[in-house]
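Protocol step 4 of 6: structure prediction from sequence.
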Amino acid sequence: MLEQVNVIFPFFVQHAMCGNKLRAPDVEVLLRLLLLAPVLEELVVRAGLQQYLTGRLRQSGINASWLPVLISATVFSALHVAAGWAMVVAIFLPGLLLAMLYQWTRDWRLCALMHAVFNGMALGVCMQ
């Protein structure tokens, strides 16, 4: 399957998603991508922002559970702008999935685990 991704999206995989640090990651990069970023980002974006927005909408009497999901996914993507706009676009879908998972379970730790899995899959593609 990874070969199919490289055939379908060779430019994206090689240029937008995989920088030199992801092609040959050291221990620091691995810790940051598989532990630190998932925990901190999910704690702030899901347990912080998304939970806050859900509570505020509920207090206001607005029944729009999709709005905090969409906003947190957008903010999550925007946090990755330093990696380039192609990465912001690519990260929106996993961010949306994580936001939906949080909205369903209310467990940011599960989101952090899935975030680490997504990052691990990205590393697997890049290290080929």
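Step 5 (inspection) to follow. Helices lie at 2-8, 10-17, 20-23, 27-59, 66-78, 85-105, 108-126.
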